[in-house]
Amino acid sequence: MPEPTAGTLTPSTRVSRGPKRPAGTLYRGREGMWSWVLHRITGVAIFFFLLVHILDTALVRVSPEAYNAVIGTYQTPIMGLGEIALVGAIGFHAFNGIRIILIDFWRKGAKYQKVMFYIVIGLWVVLMIGFVPRQLIHIFGH
């Protein structure tokens, strides 16, 4: 059998690329995937914050002294930075939730999903620009 020349493929020289996947079935790091991931992460974070908040508020009925001690720990700079993260999570989750509602209930919502994601990011940045400096002054100002 003669050797294949450069640029020709024979059945024995072809490289198998595995099964072909249908287009559009996998996220590939695009806006839709990141929106989904961030929405889930912020939702779980908000859930755990609310759980801790309910438990520490309920502590006042068990022991007012223990409640005061727990609330005292919330006055630290670390917790102040945590409040920035909490506001960021709530803001993104809320704006992205509105985006999801528009995609689900607006007939052309899916067509503008990518644009709406960037609008959500823009609104979130505006929210954080308004909140973070005031919070940092509150945390480190006294």
UniProtKB/TrEMBL annotation:
<dbReference type="Pfam" id="PF01127">
    <property type="entry name" value="Sdh_cyt"/>
</dbReference>
<dbReference type="GO" id="GO:0046872">
    <property type="term" value="F:metal ion binding"/>
</dbReference>
<keyword id="KW-1133">Transmembrane helix</keyword>
<keyword id="KW-0408">Iron</keyword>
<feature type="transmembrane region" description="Helical">
    <location>
        <begin position="37"/>
        <end position="55"/>
    </location>
</feature>
<dbReference type="InterPro" id="IPR034804">
    <property type="entry name" value="SQR/QFR_C/D"/>
</dbReference>
<dbReference type="InterPro" id="IPR014314">
    <property type="entry name" value="Succ_DH_cytb556"/>
</dbReference>
<dbReference type="GO" id="GO:0006099">
    <property type="term" value="P:tricarboxylic acid cycle"/>
</dbReference>
<feature type="region of interest" description="Disordered">
    <location>
        <begin position="1"/>
        <end position="23"/>
    </location>
</feature>
<protein>
    <submittedName>
        <fullName>Succinate dehydrogenase / fumarate reductase cytochrome b subunit</fullName>
    </submittedName>
</protein>
<keyword id="KW-0812">Transmembrane</keyword>
<keyword id="KW-0349">Heme</keyword>
<keyword id="KW-0479">Metal-binding</keyword>
<feature type="transmembrane region" description="Helical">
    <location>
        <begin position="115"/>
        <end position="132"/>
    </location>
</feature>
<dbReference type="InterPro" id="IPR000701">
    <property type="entry name" value="SuccDH_FuR_B_TM-su"/>
</dbReference>
<feature type="transmembrane region" description="Helical">
    <location>
        <begin position="84"/>
        <end position="103"/>
    </location>
</feature>
<dbReference type="GO" id="GO:0009055">
    <property type="term" value="F:electron transfer activity"/>
</dbReference>
<dbReference type="InterPro" id="IPR039023">
    <property type="entry name" value="SdhC_prok"/>
</dbReference>
<dbReference type="GO" id="GO:0016020">
    <property type="term" value="C:membrane"/>
</dbReference>
<comment type="similarity">
    <text>Belongs to the cytochrome b560 family.</text>
</comment>
<keyword id="KW-0472">Membrane</keyword>
